[in-house]
Amino acid sequence: MIDRPLLQVENLCTYFKLPKPHLFGKAATVFAVDDISFEISRGQTFGLVGESGCGKSTTAMSVLRLVEPTSGSVKLDNQDIGQLKADELRSFRRHMQIVFQDPYSSMNPRATACEIVEAPLKIQRVGTSKSRRAKVAHLFKMVGLRPEQRDLFPHQFSGGQRQRIAIARALASGPQFIVCDEPVSALDVAIQAQILNLLRRLQEELNLTYLFISHDMAIIQHMCDHIAVMYMGQIVETADRRSLFLNVQHPYTKALLSAIPTIDFNVKPSSKRLEGDVPSPMDPPEGCRFHTRCPMTEDVCKKEMPLLRAVKENHFVACHRA
After folding, report:
1. Is residue 79 domain-resident?
2. Using the 8-state DSSP alphabet, how is residue 26 labeled?
3. Which CATH number does the domain housing residue 75 bear?
4. For residues 200 and 267, what is the distance between their CA atoms, to the nearest angstrom?
5. Count of beta carbons in the 10 Å neighbourhood of residue 59
6. In 99-213, which residue ranges form alpha helices assigned H by DSSP?
7. CB under 8 Å to 213, separation ≥6 — which residues?
8. Coil, helix or strand for 165?
9. Dihedral of the CA atoms 132, 133, 139, 144 (nearest 10)?
10. Among candidate residues 147, 160, 150, the one with its CA nearest the CA of residue 103
C-alpha cells in the first residue's frame, strides 16, 4: 500500500573541503552532492543510478547521517534526521539501516556470524541474551542461512553468504528503511540474482522501503519503482520505471541505457555511448555539467544550468533540449 512518503529529501548538499595545498593556497571544495531532492513512498524502491563518482553513495551516507550534509533536510517518517542530537540519532538508527557494497570489509573478521547479526540488538539494548539469540536464529532462516553456520567467521563464508549475513544484520533492529549500496556488484552474476530476489521477497514480507544504489541499469530496471539518474552530484532525470525506460529524455540516461549488454548480433554499437572523462567535481563546468560530453550541446548548455522540469506526469528532466 502506498501512502505519504516515508523518506523526504529536500535540497540536499554535501560538500567536502580539502586541505590547503600550501600555506597561502586556497582550499578546494568537492561538490559531491549538489542540491538534490526526492521522495520515497512507503514500501517502494527508489533507485539512484549513474557512473562511479557521481555522488550516489555520498547521497546515501548523507541521508543516514553517516556523513554530515552541508545543507538541506532529510525526513524519515516526518522526523527531521538533521535535527536529532547524538543520543537521539543513535536510538533513531533502529528505523534505518544499510547494506554495504563489500560484505567482507563491512564485518568484523574476529566476530562470528551470530555476533555480527546480534550487534545492532546489543547496541540498541533490545531484549535479553536468550531472546536476541532466538531473533538471530529467526533472521538466519529468513535470509537462507543454516543454524549451524552461526558460529562461523566471515572468512568461512562465500561472498553471497556474507551478503546474506549483512542483510540479516540490517533487518535485526526492525527498520522501516534500508539503503542498499550496490549490494550485488561484488558478486557473481548467478549469485546476484539470488540476492536481488531475496531483497524483493523480504520487502514484500516486511513492507520495507529501499533506497537502491547501482551503476547497472538492468538491475535498476529489475528492482526499482522510481528511478533518479545522477551526474556530477545532481539529478538529471527522474521518473517511474516504465516512463524512464520507454520515454528516456536526457542524453546521459540514453548513454547509460546504450551500455546495457546484448546478445543480439544485429544491434550495431550505439552512437550514444559516452566519450571523454567526467570533469572534476572540484571544478564543475559552467552551465549544464554534462555539456562537455554531450553530443547535442548548444551554446545555451554552456551558459545556463538546466533545472528539472516536467516533461510528463512524474517524469522530470534537466536538459535544455528535452
Report:
1. yes
2. P
3. 3.40.50.300
4. 32
5. 30
6. 113-123, 129-143, 159-171, 189-206
7. 47, 48, 49, 56, 57, 59, 60, 179, 180, 181, 182
8. helix
9. 170
10. 160
CA distance 235 to 56: 10
Residue segments in the chain with a per-residue pLDDT below the cut of 70: 1-3, 260-274
Number of domains into which the chain is organized = 1
Cα torsion 108, 110, 115, 117 to 10°: value is: 30
Helix (H, G, I), strand (E, B) or coil at 7: strand
Inside any domain, residue 286: yes
Q: Which residue from 227, 198, 252, 230 is spatially nearest to 314, judged by alpha carbons? A: 227
**Residue 322, in any domain of the structure:** no
Question: Which tens digits make up the pLDDT trace of 267-293?
Answer: 455 555 667 778 888 888 999 999 999
Cα 52 versus chain centre, distance: 12
Q: How far out from the chain centre does Cα 46 lie?
A: 8
Q: Are 113 and 145 in contact (CB under 8 A)?
A: yes
Query: What confidence tens digit (pLDDT) does each residue in 86-126 have?
Result: 999 999 999 999 999 888 888 999 999 999 999 999 988 88
Domain range for 182 is: 5-317
> Is 200 among the domain residues?
yes
In angstroms, rounded to a whole number, what is the distance separating the alpha carbons of residues 179 and 199? 11
Grid cell for residue 32: 559531491
